[in-house]
Each structure stands twice: as structure tokens, then as C-alpha cells.
């Protein structure tokens, strides 16, 4: 015999399912906004945010450097499609003059705080590019020197290649006095330099400096420069 399912029972099951179905939760503001930090040589800090959950909204950024002045609102926003997407801050040293300070920040949507964060700016350091490189040539070697930056925990990297090389070779030192050996005096060589942080001192989220300009040498004679 064929069995029939009463209509009232089907309606009851649908209603029960509606009552027990979990509600969709609102996104966690801390997860909805991703922050990126770049500390340029302990001079300025650039904080950017990706607020995809809040399209068409100008979020408000406020901050203070621990040990410095009172909390301030951002005075130098960067824009993306007409809306605030970042803030550039001048680093304020602490009372002892140290520039490796803690940045305390908050990001708000009108009066609602989306997130608050405290970070050491050194964790996101990008050193200044080496400048005024000097080349001291010997027979089959050259020593590249420049002024050391004012803080420690850095590696000064020199890369070089000849006209016949497809890849750059690299050598580095803890001070800006780097010797490259086993060069052929008859070949043309290209050199460039940058500064990197030591992970043991600053962690893994830092950035290398931009490369210096590329200089072109042959037989100890400078042939020209190229911008990166």
C-alpha cells in the first residue's frame, strides 16, 4: 500500500529546520582588515590596510608612539580609488632618543573601533639604500665601501656579473666594506649593492633596501651607471 506523508508534517519539519538553522555571523573586524607595515630606515612608517569588508568607506586611523606625544589622528593619508587606504607617519623617538619604538594604533569606522594593535616598528624595517659607493681596485679583486648606517644588525650585500653571466653573484659583510675576488681584469663587470637585516635581530618580516644604481666597470675604469 502506498503511504502518504501529511502536508502538516512537512510544514512542521520546515519550520523546525528554520528555527534551529545557525545564523550567519558578522565578520570579525580583526580578520576583516589586513594591515601592512613598512618602517623606512626608522624615519617614517607607512601603514596600509585592506578593508574589503568596508567598501566605499573612509576609515579613521589614530596612533601614538609609546613614550612620545599624545595620541594623534593621521595627517597624511594615502588613497586608493579615492578612499583612505594607508597612513604615513613620522617616527617620534622616545625620551632617550631611541627610534626603535612601539607604535600603538587603532582603526575606526566612524565611532566604532575595528581593531587596535601595538607593534615594534623594527619588526618591519626597510633600511636605506647604500649611497656614494667607492671602488678600490686591485689586480683581480675590488673592495666596495660606503658609509655604514647608524644601527646594527645589518648585512651589506654587493652583487656583480660580467657581460657573459646570466645571473648575479653575491657577497656580503656586516659592514659596508665588501671585497669581491677572482675577477678577470679584461672583462666588463656590473655592480649593485643593497642593505639587508639579520633575521636573528629583526625577525622575518623586514624588507631589504632598494638596490643602488648599477655601475659598469672594466679594468678598474668606470664606464657608466644604470638606474634599477
In a nutshell, what does this entry contain?
The chain has 228 residues and is mainly β. Helix content is 10%, strand content 44%.
Please outline the helices and strands.
Elements: H1 7-20, H2 29-32, E1 34-40, E2 44-50, E3 60-65, E4 72-73, E5 77-80, E6 83-90, E7 102-109, E8 112-120, E9 125-126, E10 134-137, E11 142-145, E12 154-162, E13 169-173, E14 177-180, E15 188-197, H3 199-202, E16 214-218, E17 221-226
**Secondary structure category:** mainly beta
* pLDDT < 50 runs, ≥5 residues: 1-5, 12-16, 18-25
By DSSP, the count of extended strands is 17
Radius of gyration, in angstroms, nearest whole number: 28 Å
Order of helices and strands: HHEEEEEEEEEEEEEEEHEE
- Largest sheet entry: 5 strands, mixed
- Side by side, the strands of the main sheet go 5-6-2-1-9
**Contiguous helical run count:** 3
Percent range of helical residues: under 10%
Q: Write down the overall geometry.
A: elongated
Question: What's the end-to-end separation, in Å?
Answer: 85 Å
The fraction of residues assigned to DSSP E strands is 35-45%
Task: Provide the residue-averaged pLDDT.
Answer: 86
Amino acid at each position: 500500500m502506498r503511504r502518504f506523508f501529511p502536508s502538516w508534517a512537512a510544514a512542521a519539519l520546515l519550520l523546525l529546520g528554520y528555527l534551529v538553522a545557525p545564523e550567519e555571523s558578522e565578520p570579525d573586524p580583526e580578520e576583516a582588515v589586513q594591515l601592512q607595515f613598512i618602517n623606512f630606515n626608522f624615519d617614517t612608517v607607512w601603514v596600509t590596510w585592506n578593508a574589503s569588508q568596508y567598501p566605499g568607506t573612509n576609515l579613521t586611523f589614530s596612533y601614538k608612539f609609546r613614550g612620545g606625544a599624545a595620541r594623534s589622528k593621521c595627517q597624511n593619508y594615502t588613497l586608493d580609488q579615492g578612499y583612505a587606504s594607508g597612513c604615513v607617519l613620522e617616527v617620534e623617538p622616545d625620551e632617550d632618543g631611541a627610534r626603535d619604538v612601539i607604535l600603538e594604533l587603532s582603526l575606526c569606522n566612524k565611532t566604532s573601533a575595528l581593531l587596535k594593535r601595538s607593534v615594534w616598528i623594527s619588526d618591519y624595517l626597510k633600511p636605506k639604500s647604500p649611497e656614494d659607493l667607492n671602488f678600490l681596485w686591485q689586480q683581480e679583486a675590488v673592495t666596495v665601501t660606503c658609509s655604514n648606517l647608524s644601527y646594527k644588525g645589518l648585512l651589506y650585500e654587493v652583487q656583480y656579473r660580467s657581460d657573459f653571466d646570466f645571473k648575479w653573484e653575491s657577497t656580503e659583510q656586516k659592514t659596508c666594506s665588501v671585497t669581491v675576488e677572482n675577477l678577470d681584469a679584461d672583462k666588463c663587470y656590473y655592480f649593485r649593492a643593497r642593505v639587508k637585516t639579520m633575521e636573528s635581530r629583526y625577525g622575518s618580516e623586514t624588507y631589504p633596501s632598494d638596490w643602488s644604481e648599477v655601475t659598469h666597470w672594466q679594468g678598474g675604469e668606470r664606464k657608466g651607471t644604470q638606474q634599477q
